[in-house]
Design goal:
heterodimer; A: about 180 residues; mainly alpha; 3 domains; about 0% strand; elongated; B: about 210 residues; Rna Polymerase Sigma Factor, Chain: A; Arc Repressor Mutant, subunit A; 8 helices; globular
């Protein structure tokens, strides 16, 4: 294998350079006897070593012992800090423009005053208006049949409108709610 | 037949840190026992042992000393807080370097997002300490060589650059890099080989100045 006809390729030379165990005995034997390959190896080695030394020197010039010491102190200082809870920024309050706010307040006052006056004039005791949520809460008791009829009628009319004709085929497949409600005789 | 001088037995010239894995495991135990003060003291030894090499790797990635400094600090803090996930199957150095590389990559991406330009290589203010006393001509050549090395490194594709830096400049073995990056060892070697080829081609003209 160490005959003059055989010469290692660059990859093998590189592996030899990188291999710290020196396991490629065949190559070492060849390099010891072949001037050309030994020169190739030295060139490779020289380029890489020079690049390494230069980069290392540049880095060492930047990261002086003083700087490394400061870095170390900073790390220890940050490690020494007690872990603290993560603060989440609370969403900021939505600000509205001043004229709009004033208008809303004025409208609320007018409504409250009018309601109070009407109650007094009507002889009923003054009471705070019921919250809207209570008023609009869905009824838990069954609605009267007439009201249900009106709702179903509205749906039927909406379905019969020009814009919803395309949905008619789909609607035909849907069970008719009207059929479930006993009609008044 | 001409006599050739014998090959150097090893290429490793670094101070590979021994005992770091044991120390890391000790810190792990101290943290688990709630002895945080002692854990920090023990961890300090790991910082001292690895910060120089870590700073070099981070600087090669980020090309900015302040950014590199911050990345190294982040990596050490992350290593301390996540030491409970460390397993002794890999050397501490390998585990830590992986964290460091990730920190550098994150910073690099953040920097790109912020559209901040990389520091110009020519604008680097500090020249290698080894050439401070050289003649003006040699210093000029040295500065040009340094720029050529950095530019050649910059031109490498990301993977090749990463592998070359970790292997040759940060002195990790292809096997270590395989563990750090998740690439197969054979892939690492291929990237390394291509990187060296390109660097040799790029720096060939400078060899005479070596």
């Amino acid at each position: 294998m160490t005959s003059p006809e055989w010469h290692p390729d660059d990859e093998r030379l590189l592996n030899r350079y990188l291999d710290s165990t020196g396991g490629d005995v065949t190559l070492d034997k060849h390099l010891a006897n072949c001037v050309v390959c030994a020169a190739r190896f030295r060139t490779l080695e020289g380029t890489l070593e020079h690049a390494y030394e230069d980069v290392a020197a540049m880095s060492d010039a930047l990261f002086t012992p003083e700087r490394l010491e400061a870095q170390r102190r900073s790390i220890l200082s940050r490690l020494g800090q007690r872990p603290h809870g993560r603060l989440l920024t609370f969403p900021e309050r939505v600000t509205t423009s001043a004229p709009r706010t004033r208008l809303a307040v004025a409208a609320a006052l007018i409504v409250m005053t009018t309601t109070g006056l009407l109650r007094i004039l009507g002889g009923q005791p003054l009471a705070l208006p019921r919250p809207a949520a209570v008023v609009s809460r869905p009824a838990l008791v069954p609605q009267p049949a007439a009201r249900q009829e009106a709702v179903y009628l509205d749906i039927e009319m909406a379905l019969a409108r020009h814009g919803t004709a395309e949905l008619q085929a789909l609607d035909d497949l849907t069970p008719r709610a009207m059929g479930l409600v006993p009609r008044p005789r | 037949m001409a006599t050739v001088r014998p090959l150097a037995p090893l290429r490793r010239r670094s101070d590979r840190v021994d005992g770091s894995t044991d120390r890391a495991l000790r810190v792990q135990t101290l943290v688990a026992d709630g002895q945080l003060s002692e854990a920090r003291e023990a961890f300090d030894g790991l910082v001292v042992a690895h910060q120089r090499r870590a700073s070099r790797i981070a600087f090669l990635y980020l090309r900015d000393a302040a950014d590199a400094d911050e990345a190294v600090q982040e990596a050490f803090i992350k290593a301390f807080t996540r030491l409970n996930t460390y397993r002794a199957e890999h050397p501490f150095e390998v585990w830590f370097t992986r964290i460091l590389v990730n920190a550098c990559v994150d910073r690099q991406r953040a920097r790109q997002r912020a559209a901040r330009g990389r520091v110009s290589l020519d604008a680097l203010p500090i020249e290698p300490a080894t050439r401070r006393n050289a003649s003006p001509e040699h210093r000029a050549v040295g500065l040009a060589w340094r720029s050529a090395v950095m530019r050649a490194l910059d031109r490498l594709p990301q993977r090749q650059r990463q592998v070359f830096m970790l292997c040759h400049l940060a002195d990790h073995s292809p096997r270590d890099i395989s563990m750090m990056t998740g690439m197969r060892e054979s892939t690492v070697r291929v990237h390394l080989f291509r990187a060296v080829h390109k660097l040799r081609a790029a720096l060939g003209a400078w060899r005479d100045f070596a």
